[in-house]
Design brief:
With 239 residues, the protein is mainly α. It contains 13 helices and no strands.
């Protein structure tokens, strides 16, 4: 499998996405999953996936957040970032997501179908508590921050390993279990966000149809027609 960009750039890309989520949650007060939806729907994620050097290494995490919000047409107030020396759970979540995307070459919207940021953060916080208790009492603040950073790096690496193991072992849903909508989307070479943009149907709605959380056969007629037009097929082929 050929990755979109050289591994030498991965550290910077992962740091940028991690800082984007950290800034979005703590300074802009966005829910982490909502920010990832905006990142994907805005098309900024697609540039990241392609290895666009400006996106993965040419801007800071703050600038990446601004880019996603501006391309989504959202008016927001630019605020001063709040950083921690040991880095936040949200930072490590973004770091892990970037590494997962690089390792598997999966679009972010497909990764988000399999990966729960809230579960990652909850697990990170729960695991970090006993780790913090195990640190020596006389350790300096700088050493403490560095050890917590090492813990976060290891926790993120383990999450990436689980995702890539599932991906390459073939534990993904087999093609026969995919919905007709997903099969037609893949056949047309579209990501979920690409289909959302082409059809005007909300990204989250498309995800729900493909995950069988909603029945496309009972969808609003305009959604079914819009999706079939974007995919160049008869509406009956999608249900």
């Amino acid at each position: 499998m050929t990755t979109a960009y050289d591994k030498i750039c991965l550290g910077r890309a992962a740091d940028t996405l991690g800082r984007m989520l950290d800034y979005s949650v703590y300074s802009l007060h966005y829910d982490i999953a909502a920010m990832m939806d905006l990142f994907i729907a805005s098309g900024v994620a697609a540039s990241f996936e392609r290895g666009d050097i400006r996106t993965i290494a040419g801007m800071s995490g703050i600038e990446l957040a601004y880019e996603a919000l501006e391309k989504s047409g959202i008016v927001f107030e630019r605020t001063q970032p709040r950083y921690t020396k040991s880095l936040s759970p949200e930072y490590w979540c973004g770091h892990a997501l970037a590494c997962m995307q690089w390792e598997t070459c999966m679009p972010f919207d497909q990764i988000m179908n399999k990966f729960s940021p809230s579960a990652f953060i909850s697990g990170y916080v729960s695991s970090r508590l006993p780790f913090l208790d195990s640190l020596p009492l006389d350790i300096s603040e700088a050493e403490r921050a560095e050890k917590i950073k090492d813990f976060g790096r290891q926790y993120a690496a383990e999450a990436v390993s689980r995702m890539t193991s599932q991906y390459f072992s073939g534990s993904r849903s087999s093609e026969k279990d995919d919905t007709p909508l997903k099969k037609m989307r893949i056949k047309n070479g579209l990501s979920q966000s690409g289909l959302a943009k082409a059809s005007g149907v909300p990204l989250r709605t498309i995800q729900q149809y493909e995950q069988r959380q909603k029945d496309l056969a009972r969808a609003r007629a305009e959604y079914l027609i819009a999706l079939s037009r974007a995919l160049g097929c008869d509406p009956s082929r999608l249900i």
